[in-house]
Design brief:
Helices cover 34% and strands 22% of the residues. It has 152 residues and is of the alpha+beta class. Strands 1-2-3-4-5 form a five-stranded mixed β-sheet, with helices on both faces. Strand 3 and strand 4 form a beta hairpin.
Amino acid sequence: MLDEEKLDYFKWQIPDGFRVRLTLLQKDDLEFLHKWKSQVDISYVTSKAIQPISLEERQRRFKEKIPSIFAIRRIIDNRFIGEISLYDLNPKNRSAAVGYFTGVEYRQQGYTKEGLWLLLNYLFKVVGLNKVMADTGAFNQASIALLKSLKF
Protein backbone atom coordinates (compact mmCIF):
# COMPACT_ATOMS: atom_id res chain seq x y z
CA MET A 1 0.00 0.00 0.00
CA LEU A 2 1.26 3.47 -0.85
CA ASP A 3 1.78 6.23 1.70
CA GLU A 4 -1.19 8.67 1.49
CA GLU A 5 1.17 11.65 1.72
CA LYS A 6 2.91 10.55 -1.49
CA LEU A 7 -0.41 10.39 -3.36
CA ASP A 8 -1.14 14.13 -3.01
CA TYR A 9 -0.07 15.28 -6.47
CA PHE A 10 -0.64 18.92 -5.45
CA LYS A 11 2.52 18.57 -3.35
CA TRP A 12 4.62 16.75 -5.93
CA GLN A 13 7.88 18.42 -6.86
CA ILE A 14 8.82 16.76 -10.11
CA PRO A 15 12.34 17.84 -11.08
CA ASP A 16 12.76 19.70 -14.37
CA GLY A 17 14.16 17.91 -17.38
CA PHE A 18 16.61 19.34 -19.88
CA ARG A 19 13.98 20.94 -22.11
CA VAL A 20 10.64 20.57 -20.32
CA ARG A 21 9.06 20.77 -16.89
CA LEU A 22 5.76 19.43 -15.61
CA THR A 23 3.30 21.61 -13.73
CA LEU A 24 -0.32 21.08 -12.84
CA LEU A 25 -2.61 22.13 -15.67
CA GLN A 26 -3.80 25.72 -15.24
CA LYS A 27 -7.05 27.34 -16.28
CA ASP A 28 -5.18 29.44 -18.87
CA ASP A 29 -3.99 26.23 -20.57
CA LEU A 30 -7.54 25.11 -21.38
CA GLU A 31 -7.98 27.37 -24.43
CA PHE A 32 -4.80 26.00 -26.04
CA LEU A 33 -5.82 22.45 -25.22
CA HIS A 34 -9.29 22.98 -26.64
CA LYS A 35 -7.89 24.55 -29.83
CA TRP A 36 -5.44 21.69 -30.34
CA LYS A 37 -8.00 18.97 -29.69
CA SER A 38 -10.44 20.68 -32.07
CA GLN A 39 -7.84 20.64 -34.88
CA VAL A 40 -7.58 16.85 -35.04
CA ASP A 41 -9.89 13.89 -35.17
CA ILE A 42 -9.35 12.89 -31.55
CA SER A 43 -10.36 9.31 -32.31
CA TYR A 44 -7.20 9.05 -34.42
CA VAL A 45 -4.84 9.66 -31.49
CA THR A 46 -6.39 7.45 -28.82
CA SER A 47 -7.91 4.04 -28.35
CA LYS A 48 -10.47 5.45 -25.91
CA ALA A 49 -13.98 6.48 -26.92
CA ILE A 50 -13.76 10.25 -26.57
CA GLN A 51 -16.49 12.71 -27.45
CA PRO A 52 -15.49 16.24 -28.46
CA ILE A 53 -16.45 18.81 -25.83
CA SER A 54 -16.84 22.57 -25.94
CA LEU A 55 -14.40 24.97 -24.32
CA GLU A 56 -17.14 25.90 -21.84
CA GLU A 57 -17.62 22.25 -20.85
CA ARG A 58 -13.85 21.80 -20.49
CA GLN A 59 -13.72 24.88 -18.23
CA ARG A 60 -16.71 23.68 -16.18
CA ARG A 61 -15.11 20.29 -15.59
CA PHE A 62 -11.84 21.95 -14.63
CA LYS A 63 -13.61 24.23 -12.15
CA GLU A 64 -15.57 21.37 -10.55
CA LYS A 65 -12.57 19.22 -9.84
CA ILE A 66 -9.01 19.93 -10.76
CA PRO A 67 -7.96 16.76 -12.52
CA SER A 68 -4.56 15.13 -12.16
CA ILE A 69 -3.40 16.53 -15.47
CA PHE A 70 0.12 17.83 -15.85
CA ALA A 71 1.07 20.50 -18.35
CA ILE A 72 4.23 19.93 -20.34
CA ARG A 73 6.04 23.29 -20.54
CA ARG A 74 9.20 24.21 -22.41
CA ILE A 75 11.79 25.46 -19.96
CA ILE A 76 13.19 28.05 -22.34
CA ASP A 77 9.94 30.07 -22.53
CA ASN A 78 7.51 28.25 -20.16
CA ARG A 79 5.21 27.66 -23.16
CA PHE A 80 2.44 25.11 -22.66
CA ILE A 81 2.99 22.44 -25.31
CA GLY A 82 1.00 19.42 -24.15
CA GLU A 83 -0.54 17.45 -21.32
CA ILE A 84 -0.07 14.18 -19.47
CA SER A 85 -3.05 12.78 -17.58
CA LEU A 86 -2.65 10.45 -14.63
CA TYR A 87 -5.67 8.26 -13.98
CA ASP A 88 -6.80 4.94 -12.50
CA LEU A 89 -4.37 5.39 -9.61
CA ASN A 90 -4.64 2.26 -7.48
CA PRO A 91 -2.73 2.62 -4.17
CA LYS A 92 -3.34 -1.00 -3.16
CA ASN A 93 -1.84 -2.40 -6.36
CA ARG A 94 0.63 0.50 -6.68
CA SER A 95 -0.41 1.12 -10.27
CA ALA A 96 -1.74 3.90 -12.50
CA ALA A 97 -2.33 4.76 -16.13
CA VAL A 98 -1.19 7.71 -18.20
CA GLY A 99 -2.47 9.43 -21.30
CA TYR A 100 -0.94 12.31 -23.20
CA PHE A 101 -1.68 14.87 -25.86
CA THR A 102 0.72 17.27 -27.55
CA GLY A 103 -0.05 20.34 -29.63
CA VAL A 104 0.42 19.58 -33.35
CA GLU A 105 3.29 22.05 -33.75
CA TYR A 106 5.24 20.43 -30.88
CA ARG A 107 4.94 16.77 -31.88
CA GLN A 108 7.86 14.50 -32.77
CA GLN A 109 10.41 16.82 -31.14
CA GLY A 110 11.02 14.76 -28.00
CA TYR A 111 9.06 17.02 -25.63
CA THR A 112 6.37 14.47 -24.77
CA LYS A 113 8.93 11.69 -24.34
CA GLU A 114 10.90 13.80 -21.89
CA GLY A 115 7.74 14.83 -20.02
CA LEU A 116 6.57 11.22 -19.76
CA TRP A 117 10.02 10.11 -18.61
CA LEU A 118 9.99 12.79 -15.86
CA LEU A 119 6.58 11.66 -14.62
CA LEU A 120 7.36 7.94 -14.84
CA ASN A 121 10.64 8.42 -12.99
CA TYR A 122 8.82 10.31 -10.23
CA LEU A 123 5.99 7.77 -10.02
CA PHE A 124 8.37 4.83 -9.67
CA LYS A 125 11.14 6.35 -7.53
CA VAL A 126 9.26 8.80 -5.30
CA VAL A 127 5.59 7.77 -5.20
CA GLY A 128 6.42 4.07 -5.14
CA LEU A 129 4.35 2.71 -8.00
CA ASN A 130 5.41 -0.58 -9.55
CA LYS A 131 3.27 -0.46 -12.70
CA VAL A 132 2.21 2.33 -15.06
CA MET A 133 0.04 1.54 -18.06
CA ALA A 134 -0.69 3.39 -21.28
CA ASP A 135 -2.57 2.43 -24.39
CA THR A 136 -3.00 3.78 -27.85
CA GLY A 137 -4.70 2.82 -31.07
CA ALA A 138 -2.99 0.19 -33.20
CA PHE A 139 -3.01 2.76 -36.01
CA ASN A 140 -1.13 5.46 -34.03
CA GLN A 141 2.42 4.58 -35.05
CA ALA A 142 3.98 7.70 -33.49
CA SER A 143 2.45 6.92 -30.11
CA ILE A 144 3.45 3.26 -30.35
CA ALA A 145 7.04 4.29 -31.07
CA LEU A 146 7.00 6.72 -28.13
CA LEU A 147 5.72 4.07 -25.72
CA LYS A 148 8.23 1.49 -26.98
CA SER A 149 11.07 3.98 -26.55
CA LEU A 150 10.05 4.32 -22.89
CA LYS A 151 10.00 0.51 -22.46
CA PHE A 152 6.22 0.08 -22.32
